[in-house]
Amino acid sequence: MEGAGPVFVVLLGAPGAGKGTQAKYLAKALEVPHISSGHIFRVNLQVDSELGRKASDYLARGELVPDDVTIGMIRDRLAQADCGRGAVLDGFPRTPAQAEALDELLGERGARVAAVLYIKVDEAVLIQRLSGRWMCRQAGHVYHQLFNPPKAPGVCDVDGSPLYQRSDDTEETVAHRIAVYLRQTAPLIEHYRKRGQITEIDGGQPIEVVSRQSLAALPEG
Ligand code: AMP
């Protein structure tokens, strides 16, 4: 993809589908930033910024943060210099209004969404994955107590930071987040399908297989 214009890739899929894991892989392969809207919110919550305070209740309940707040945040992030060659978007857009805003934001830069990967996983598997999930404090690297344990318990293999369980990964909030996804985000699959941009990938396969298929689905990938 050397010499081509910026490459913006959108990952769609339910919570627990593996978007974060695959986004990290693709961002590294494409040498572009990985932008996780959920991670940005969590970091802001930790430092108790104005954005963090605005998002806090929504995250705790597993609801979507209002579009104006979320779109403003992504606008600021995409304006940073490291997005000049593109980005892998993980968790954004999540509503039709966000998808429209993304088109506008990229259009202002003479860019567009290059590909949309829909990582599909059965609901029962999602719940199992989320309730055993651990993340690192520093960069959000993801582990699972059964399926993908860290080498040393409680410590991130990549950066050595402590692992924690997300407070919205409780069984009750997980079920609600999946319902929110089905109601508000799943319609985007049809939106991008109509534009001929969706590649569906079976997210129930081993991580490396999903990664390989994801990379192969990108233009010139
Ligand atoms: P995630 O890490 O992607 O599972 O996101 C965690 C939480 O952050 C979600 O349950 C929402 O409360 C919030 N969030 C993340 N991305 C968005 C978005 N694009 N729109 C609204 N809320 C979001």
TrEMBL record:
Specify where the region named NMP lies, as residue ranges: 36-65
Q: Where is this region: LID?
A: 132-169
According to the UniProt entry, its GO molecular function terms are: AMP kinase activity; ATP binding
**What Enzyme Commission number does this protein have?**
2.7.4.3
Which of the seven top EC classes does this enzyme belong to?
A: transferase
As for subcellular location, the record says:
Cytoplasm
Q: Which Gene3D superfamilies match?
A: P-loop containing nucleotide triphosphate hydrolases
What is the catalytic activity of this protein? AMP + ATP = 2 ADP
Q: Where this protein primarily resides, as one coarse class? A: cytoplasm
Q: Binding of ATP: at which residues?
A: G16, A17, G18, K19, G20, T21, R133, V142, Y143, Q205
Primary role:
Catalyzes the reversible transfer of the terminal phosphate group between ATP and AMP. Plays an important role in cellular energy homeostasis and in adenine nucleotide metabolism.
The record ties this protein, via PANTHER family, to: NUCLEOTIDE KINASE
The text the record gives for the protein's domains is: Consists of three domains, a large central CORE domain and two small peripheral domains, NMPbind and LID, which undergo movements during catalysis. The LID domain closes over the site of phosphoryl transfer upon ATP binding. Assembling and dissambling the active center during each catalytic cycle provides an effective means to prevent ATP hydrolysis.
Which family, according to the similarity comment? Belongs to the adenylate kinase family.
Q: Assembly and interactions?
A: Monomer.
Q: What is this protein called?
A: Adenylate kinase
Q: Which organism is it from?
A: uncultured Chloroflexi bacterium Rifle_16ft_4_minimus_38099
